[in-house]
Structures are given as structure tokens and as C-alpha cells.
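pipeline: protein-struct stage 2 | run 1193 | ParA family protein
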Amino acid sequence: MNIAISNQKGGAGKTTTTLNVAGALNQLGNDVLVIDLDPQGHLTEGLGFEELYDDRDRDALIDTLADLDRISRGDGTDLIVEHQEMDAIPSHERMINAEDELANEMKREQRLGMLLEGVANGYDFVLIDCPPNLGVLTDNAIIATGNVLIPAQAKTTSIRAIELLFKQLRSIETAFDDVQELALVANEVEVDGEAEEMMAWFRDVFEDKDRCAVFEIRKRVALQRAWNAGVSIFEHSEDCDMEGEYLAVAKHLEGFTDE
């Protein structure tokens, strides 16, 4: 199952969600591939692959996405690196130019999907950490997967961002295939009135959607420390009560593969 983790608002927790949901899926016995589609490379850094982000001699994801012939040949497995919990396709500093490089290319929104046909075999889940915008890279991820997991802060500023994302999803559905919103993961939820109101809003909006669910991740320093150590919370030395919530997300996603 291929899933885009998307919300164009910065600070929504896309990378933390990707890393820890992938870790949870791994805990449940799934083979997982994560793809860092964000030019800033936060997931790449969070997996401990900073040196690959800066390696100018390494073939990067954008080099393949920009070469339709290379994609058609099924190339791309050489982009995959191994991590103790999951495999990964890291980002690269050259990804900063991806929007411009793909802007006028044929099938520019479909290239990642074509690439996945050659690299996704053998994985139970492919999670794609999207950029914090709604450009061609995010469109590629959503079209390639048809499934979206939405991270968000439990703050009123998230409402506009989610409304814009919904608008983009409906636009993609008009031109391509249907898109399933799988779940919303509220991140760094505080104990205050604003958070309570937003959690209620999230449930009103998302739990009314077919099979969609809302999950609540409380703010925990252990999550940041795990990221600093290059692992998910499941391989970190500290115990964290949010492990159970990430496992609940993973089990919810597994439910869609039983169809």
C-alpha cells in the first residue's frame, strides 16, 4: 500500500509522522519503504543519512524523476538505502530545483507513480513524506498513491491549510483518480482549550469520511530525541506512551490492505 503524508503547512509534523508510523508498521512485521520527497530533507536527516543529502556524486531521486527514459527502463532501485527499521529513498540538495525541472516536462505529475512501479514491489507499505507545499512534487505523491495520511497541529491555523489540501485533492480527482483520506494525525497536542476545540473539529470533519480516523499524538520530548538518534520511537532507548497511538495508526492502515 502506497501512502502520501501531506499537509502544505509547515510544522504540521509530516516527518515525525512518517518516521514513527513507518516504525510502527515495521513493529507489526511489515516491510516498509519511505521516500523523502521534501527538498529540505528532514526525513533524510531524521534517518541519519545527512551525508547522502550533501553527496554531490550520488544519483538523487530528482535525477531519475527528470529522466523519463530512465523511469521507463525501471531504474530506481539504486536509490534505495537500508536503515535498521525500514528502507529509504533519501532526499538530496538538488531536489530544491525539482519544481522547476519538472514544470514543463511530459507526464510531470505521474513520474513518481511510474517510478514506484519499479521500486515498490516487495514492500508492504511505501510512505512518502511530501514537501510543505502543493506543487508538482506533492501532486506526484498523491497521484502515485491515491491515499493520503494528513498530519496537523491542533491549532486553529490548521483549518485553512486542511481546506486548501481538500481543494487540491478534489482537483486531482477531477484530472486523475479518486483519492482516499485515510486518517488525520494531530501532532504535539497540548492540554488547552484551543487543542480541545481543534480535536473536536478534526473529528467532525474527518470521522464523517469513509473509514477515516483521527489520532492524537501528545507532545513528548522522547519523540524529538528519537529523531535526533536517527530512529523511530520504537527503536529509541526511552519508553514513550505515544508508541501505542502510532501502533493504532499502523493497525488502522493495515485494515485497508485487507480489502
